[in-house]
Structure formats: structure tokens, C-alpha cells
């Protein structure tokens, strides 16, 4: 199973997603690990089991066990941080000055290159819609990898999320 299996399931009314998914899966602006990890972290954040399975199958050969675990960790830690920091941003006031008091040591020691992990955190934060986290991770990724890497992560996150919701909707209409 693979990206091709996902492309085969995308309805004709969403053929642009099929084309975007195909071109992004062969993108050369990121290293194979960066590309695979961004896809995996995005799929996990998009919360569609079929999409996650197919994307992991596609990139399993280019990701070490440490990189696959780090992509999962990026999704997990951003799942918490995106909610907390979105609250801080929305509520305003004194909360921004208070320590989060949430354990997040994986950010300091993710098991892969820090820039790769930050790229994956950015993709998850884009999907989860946390302004503070997107701003923070975008700056780190831009400084380390450049603006093109930021844009590629955003394009992957947007496309993977759109594929996930499109397939979920198509399945719901058939069932």
C-alpha cells in the first residue's frame, strides 16, 4: 500500500488533491527523511487511519525507527502544546507570562536532527491551527532550512489534511 493507493481512492471531484499528493510525495526540496517525517506527522495529525497507514507504508523504507518515532512524538507533543498554547493565545492576559508546567522534554531530545523535528512540529501545528506554535516553529525551521522548507511543510500538511477529510467524507456518503 502507498500514496498510489490513496490517490486511487480520491474521488474525481477532488482530483487536484490527487495531483498535489503525487507531486509532493516526490518533492526534492526536502531530504527523504524530512519529507517522510513531514508526511507521517501530518497524517497522524489529520486523524484518518487509512491515510496514516498508507503514508507510513509509503515512507517506512526511508525512515529509521528513530525518525518514525520522532514523527509520532512530534504529533503527540504538538497535540498537547497546540491546545495549550492556542488557549494561552485566545485567553490573553496573564497566562502568557505563566510557565506551562507541562512536560515536553522530547522537544529538546527528539532522537533526530532538531531541524527535522521542528519541521514535523510545524506541519502538525499547521493542521491543528495553533498560531503561537506555527509562529515559533516557522521561525526555527526558516532559520535552519529556509523558507522553501517551511512552504513545503505547509503544502504537505494542507494536502494530507484535505485528503484525510475528503476520504472520510466519501466513505460516510457511501456507508
UniProtKB/TrEMBL annotation:
One of its GO terms (biological process) is response to oxidative stress. Disulfide bonds join 130-133. It catalyses: N(6)-[(R)-dihydrolipoyl]-L-lysyl-[lipoyl-carrier protein] + a hydroperoxide = N(6)-[(R)-lipoyl]-L-lysyl-[lipoyl-carrier protein] + an alcohol + H2O. InterPro entries: AhpD, AhpD-like, AhpD_core, CMD-like. The keyword Membrane does not apply. The active site is at 130 (proton donor), 133 (cysteine sulfenic acid (-soh) intermediate). GO terms for molecular function: disulfide oxidoreductase activity; hydroperoxide reductase activity; peroxiredoxin activity. SUPFAM superfamilies: AhpD-like. Signal peptide: none annotated. Residues 94-173 form the Carboxymuconolactone decarboxylase-like domain. Pfam families: CMD. Keywords: Antioxidant, Disulfide bond, Oxidoreductase, Peroxidase, Redox-active center. The keyword Oxidoreductase applies. Its EC number is 1.11.1.28. Antioxidant protein with alkyl hydroperoxidase activity. Required for the reduction of the AhpC active site cysteine residues and for the regeneration of the AhpC enzyme activity. Belongs to the AhpD family. HAMAP family: AhpD. This is Alkyl hydroperoxide reductase AhpD. The gene is ahpD.
